[in-house]
Amino acid sequence: MRFRRLERRFSISAQRLSVRPHIPWYIRWIIAIPIVLALGGAVWWAYDSGLELAGFHRGQAAKELDDLREKLSTLQDENAKLSSQAASFERQAQMEHAANLEIANQIKVLSEENIKLKENVSFFQNLPLAQGENEGDLSILSLKVERDSLPGEYFCRMILVQSVKQRGKAFQGNMQLIVNAVKDGKKVVLQFPLDSAPHDPAYQLNFKYYQVIDRAFKISPDTRIESVQVRVFERGVREPKVVQSVGLS
């Protein structure tokens, strides 16, 4: 058996042996690294060449990207400036709107005052004629009932004038408003001043020649006025000295 083993080992059918020199591991790395780098460079060059052949240029793309970033920064700056200007214009527009509203209110007030002044001028121009034609001792001129800006609020405006024969004699008394209205389809009668305040100072009268009266009264907003009757009483007299009715202006 030993002979056969020796014969197999040294015969032609024996396994071949190779003799290799021993190479340290760091020398193998020194040899392998340049090869790997060369292969990586070749692959990168092939990839970059393929992109250029396909129409993609890395340097141009980087330049375009920088340009886009610069444009983005410029647009952001312009957007911030425009936003600031828009806020400034909005504040200015709000101030101008408020100023316009104030001017409109002033114009409205001045227009109302102008109408009153015209009425007063007309009254004073016709006052001697009214006093001469007046058969009684007292008369009511320019009687009007108008709506106020708030629902249910009204103004009663008029001028009380004494006749020439009563000149120099003070008239003392009070006035009363009788409002004929409709509420919920039913006729109602309202009286001012209220029964709870019969001696309201706003309805007291004391003048020699004339007195301009502008009285406000308030009713329910769902009440519709048909007419208003004005009654003027002299102090100590139960019967009204003068009575006049007017519809809503």
Summarize the entry for a quick read.
By secondary structure, the protein is α+β, with helices and mostly antiparallel strands.
Round the Cα radius of gyration to an integer and report it: 55 Å
Distance linking N and C termini: 147 Å
CATH architecture of the domain at 136-246: Sandwich
**Structural class, from helix and strand content?**
alpha+beta
CATH topology call of the domain at 136-246: Immunoglobulin-like
How many β-strands, per DSSP? 8
- Any idea of the CATH class of the domain at 136-246? Mainly Beta
Plain-language structure description:
The protein has 249 residues and is of the alpha+beta class. It contains three helices and eight strands. The strands form two sheets. Strands 3, 4, 5, 7 and 8 form a five-stranded antiparallel β-sheet that branches. A three-stranded antiparallel β-sheet has the order 1-2-6, with helices on one face. The longest helix has 76 residues, at 58-133. It is rod-shaped. The model has no long low-confidence stretch (mean pLDDT 80).
